[in-house]
Amino acid sequence: MINNISIYIHIPFCIKKCNYCNFYSVPYKSNLVNNYISCLKKEIENFSPSDEYCVNTIYFGGGTPSLLSFHHLFKIITAIKNEFTIAENPEVTLEANPVNITKTNAKNWKICGINRISLGAQSFNNSELEILGRLHSEKEIYSAVEIIKEYCTENVSMDLMYGIPFQSMKTWTSSLKEAIKLEPKHISSYCLTLEKGTYLSDKKDEYSFPDENMQSKMYEQMITVLEKNKFYQYEISNFSKKGFESKHNLNYWKGGEYLGFGASAHSFYKMKRINNFSDINKYIEELAHKNPPIEKSKQISHREFISDKIVLGLRLNKGISISEFRNKHNFDIEKEYKDVLKKFFESGYLTKQNDKLKLTSKALFVSNSILSDFV
Amino acid sequence: MKKEHIRNFCIIAHIDHGKSTLADRFLEHTHTIEMHTVDQILDDMDLERERGITIKAHAIRMKYNYKDKEYTFNLIDTPGHVDFSYEVSRSIAACEGAILLVDASQGIEAQTLSNLYMAVENNLEIIPAVNKIDIPAAEPDELKEELAELLGVSEDEVLLVSAKEDIGIDKLLDAIVEEISAPLSKYSETRALIFDSQYNQYRGVVVYIRVFDGALHKGDKIKFFSTDNIFEIEDIGHFGLKMEPCEKLMAGEVGYIIAGVKQVREAKVGDTITLADNPTSHPLKGFKHPKPMVFSGIFPMDGANYNNLRDALAKFQLNDTSLVYEPENSLILGFGFRCGFLGLLHLEIFKERINREYGISIISTTPSVEFIIKKKNGDEITIDNPAQMPEQVEIESIKEPIMDCEILVPTEYIGNIMKLAQERRGVQKNMEYIDKKRVSIHYEFPLIEILFDFYDKLKSVSRGYASFDYEYREHRIADVQKVDIIVNGEKVDAMSFIVHSDKAYSWGKSITEELKKVIPKHLFKIAIQAAVGNQVIARSTINALRKDVTAKCYGGDITRKRKLLEKQKKGKKRMKEVGNVSIPQEAFLAVLKADRS
């Protein structure tokens, strides 16, 4: 039997760290990048996948993968192609910063097989972009989308953010509408979260943030505006045109297996949750010594797998299939979570339609309160 | 051993004034232990050391050579908190002398003073000593003058020491021989004082005694005066670093007996031991049954732990004479126990030990005092639980416990103290100047008013200088009523409290506000009300949770997301369900923290 698997490649370089970001990243330095790419290649080559796997999605995330030069990107893609069986039409996504979008880049990406661009637009309001510490302006988003569509792919996803300091319902709605005008196929939208150690978190007293109430209203507004424009919500924070859901991310939410390569990348493979060293130097050092760059590897129990799969699956609008759990995993959700289900059915946060168990719309923005009962 | 070569003494000191360190130096100088081998030998419970207080009294024997003669010193350790003042009084009664040890930078505290009075009443010789003279903030000369004035001695007689830096210790040891008198006997019949008792898992109760008259031998049949119970001495001995068995204890000596006593409550602190076949008719004075003053319901967090809690209480009681308990049932918390304690600190220590030593997570209900209620039908009942309060219409009158209190404070804070006392329904009885700068003010306070945050308030209005001490006086008629706390329509019986009518509103208000802070937001709005009978007197509202979402969930780091949810779930498990509201353990404590002014 052939199993699908996803591959994630982490590119931890940034020109400048955004004010809200706590992901692992380091400044772009060409020596370090060269070194890192060689290590990535080595890591991929050292991994010997079982024959039964077939790669159907590849995702370049970061950091800023759009900073990579053609030959870096090509090296990695080639390594993957050499080591793995690749599905016929794999989804290959690259996260891109609007400032990196040039004709040449877009053409090169296409040559490398990139067929989906996730564009970090975040906002169409210049002062909001500045607060976020983004390097692009509203104008650059328009031209970026144009270039991508013409020279690389029509399959564009856009990231948008709400809960930004001084953001109003008006500026949020207008960002949503501008995004829609550019006709992306997919929109991911996140509420700004203050992560410890980030610039915004350190300076939070100097800014006025929309409160929880406002955030919740912005969330509702987004759903209304996007649905009206035929973007279908398929996950708590994700919307797409029919057939353009992110296959890569769907694999996470469905409890599928994935391999992460690069510093701080995570894998879920043969019931093991694995994470690589975050520190890029440590990552490079381990590979130089021919060691796997793994910081931690943990075999999870069947029970943990089940609860992860429920918690992730309930994020999806179509919910989880009760019969799938019963037949494929020998797990009776209705029996094991009898009390939890009863409680949330009664209070209207969960619903069961035929075989599907799902969160109701009012549950989405408070979903952790419900999901935590399933871990 | 000759009586004239025995010295029995204790150290009177406030918490942190250096008693344990001084005791360690004594042990070193008398070669009872080698230098600096063990820190603070006398406090052997972790909890005691962490809190810097000594819960139970202990004793140790040392040999000291003075002018070519060997003396036996028995140092009897005393607990250092007002909750345990009776135990202190019995330790003091076992001694002929006391070292009054005062921190050079802190001065005398009220509790030290009250222990000092106790010592003077018991005719103890007092050796005044100023400790910590090495620290920069020390004002030894001023304190010297003060102590000399207080005790009516010359300033030269006040010793200066630093237990930490080992300064002046030998002089202090000499003073013990010179100043403190040797024990004297009065009667021929045997009399021994129980000044402590501890339960030992393997040997039963070890009874700490001071023999005043006659002698006790291994094999003697003895009688406990207060209970008339007769036991046979199986083992008898002195306290070195360990228990050191011997054949007999003579008048003047301090040591232990083991006599098949099963529970510490059978060997009551303060009781007199005499010989069964030749009993004394003159028991030692001062014996009291320990009287719990503060009552609280103790419930296992997890109902399944009820039996474990019951076993833990039984074990706990083996070693704690003052703890009393009986089964209690709460609508909200289920099955538990109503427990009586000497004071709030005693309750806190109890809770920590149950948690730490027995691994049982517990919830304690709002502490209450004992009220005497006269009903219109003539019945009189005593209640220590607001749940037992009869209907208002049945009540003729309610009496609350009143305490005699002494507050010791520098004169510049008198105004603040008076204001605080007024807020707490204090009645000033008199005020005495101890010296030019300090006064001792006597008040009568209802216990309920000084139970919760009084001590902290007292410290804050006096910049930490005021100290106080109290003891029970009587029950007195008061206009008090029961206030219930209602969470989303459900009465939380464990949070009910009884309070003076004038304060029902302000207490209710501050408790509902405090609960608002500690009860987490739920998916729905929660109303918290305080009510007297059917009338709501205060209210706060916890708004519904609007946002609780991990918006961005990919990148493959499932473990981190999972941990977040697990933490959330664990949090839920630590809560009690009241109706559909989850109330965290801290909420039951929040009731204690609310402002009571």
Secondary structure blueprint with pairings:
The complex is a heterodimer of chains A (375) and B (597).
Chain A: E1 3-11, E2 13-14, E3 26-27, H1 30-46, E4 53-62, H2 70-83, E5 86-96, H3 103-112, E6 116-122, H4 126-132, H5 138-151, E7 156-162, H6 169-181, E8 186-191, H7 199-202, H8 212-228, E9 232-235, E10 238-240, H9 247-253, E11 258-261, E12 266-269, E13 272-276, H10 280-288, E14 294-299, H11 302-313, E15 320-321, H12 322-329, H13 333-336, H14 338-346, E16 350-353, E17 356-359, H15 367-371
Parallel strand pairs in A: 1-4, 1-11, 2-3, 4-5, 5-6, 6-7, 7-8
Antiparallel strand pairs in A: 8-10, 9-10, 12-13, 13-14, 15-17, 16-17
Helix pairs in contact in A: 1-2, 1-10, 2-3, 6-8
Chain B: E1 6-13, H1 19-29, H2 46-51, E2 59-66, E3 69-76, H3 85-93, E4 97-103, H4 110-121, E5 125-131, H5 140-151, E6 159-160, H6 169-179, E7 191-200, E8 204-213, E9 215-217, E10 221-224, E11 230-232, E12 235-239, E13 243-245, E14 248-250, E15 254-258, E16 272-275, E17 294-300, H7 306-318, E18 324-330, E19 334-341, H8 344-358, E20 362-364, E21 371-375, E22 380-383, E23 395-410, H9 414-423, E24 427-433, E25 438-446, H10 447-451, H11 454-461, E26 467-477, E27 480-487, E28 490-491, E29 497-500, H12 504-518, E30 526-532, E31 535-542, H13 558-573, E32 575-578, E33 581-584, H14 585-593
Parallel strand pairs in B: 1-3, 1-4, 4-5, 5-6
Antiparallel strand pairs in B: 2-3, 7-8, 7-16, 8-15, 9-14, 10-11, 10-16, 12-13, 12-15, 17-19, 17-20, 18-19, 21-22, 21-23, 23-25, 23-26, 24-25, 27-28, 27-29, 27-30, 30-31, 32-33
Helix pairs in contact in B: 12-14
Quick structural summary:
With 375 residues, chain A is α/β, with parallel strands linked by helices.
Which labels suit this protein?
heterodimer, A: 375 residues, alpha/beta, TIM Barrel, Arc Repressor Mutant, subunit A, 2 domains, nine-stranded mixed sheet, three-stranded antiparallel sheet, 15 helices, 24% strand, globular, B: 597 residues, alpha+beta, eight-stranded antiparallel sheet, six-stranded mixed sheet, 14 helices, 33 strands
